[in-house]
Amino acid sequence: MDIRFHGKRALVTGAGRGIGKGIAEALAAGGAETYALDVIQENLDRVKSENPSMHTVCVDLSDWAATRKAVEEIGPIDLLVNDAGIISHAPFVDTDENSLDKLFDVNFMAAVNVSQVVAKGMIERGKGGAIVHISSLVSKRGAVNLAAYCSSKGALDQTMRVMALELGPHQIRVNCVNPFSTKTDMTNSVINDPVRGPALLAKIPLGRFLEVKDVVHPVLYLLSDKADMINGVTLVVDGGSAIA
Questions:
Q1: Which region is the signal sequence (predicted)?
Q2: Is the whole-model pTM more than 0.90?
Q3: Which of 9, 61, 181, 198 has the fewest Cβ atoms within 10 Å of its own Cβ atom?
């Protein structure tokens, strides 16, 4: 399936590395004028050196006002991917206010904030658009020591459904992609752990952990016109672990 994005302007948050970087690179390769947003300038410099056509934006997504200003200055966006996310591990009884605030600020609040700015522009232009949130399989399943992370992704899924209902009449489609453990800097410590890694792998019928490309491809599909009647879904990408 040939998917192209010529004439489109795309924004990807958390695009300095991992899944976000892979998505931004794929969108640019597909012809979209692409903006990579991240909090770490060094990561953005690397993205820019590898992809000279890429626009980069450095902002702390936990800063509501600064984020809103940065996204407004980018201008019209047709395709948005909210990938930025952080994780912390703690038993439920030890999950403190600071941890909850940090994870919800980046994993949930930032996606709402960026999406509001982008969606308002889409509505004003009247040409529709597509938004994809990178959620997680654990938005649907509990995971030990991940109360804050699971909750933030669950909130993201539910807000996506409301967005799909409210923005659909404006021809703006909103969906989530919910991957299982993917080989990135954020999850490598678990995947490579001699105890936890094999235990996780045993839950995947296809017998391997996700690579970045395994998440990038469904995101590109959902952003494309090939998916123009797909709205309000949580697309699980997990090698079958959800049914194991």
A1: none
A2: yes
A3: 198
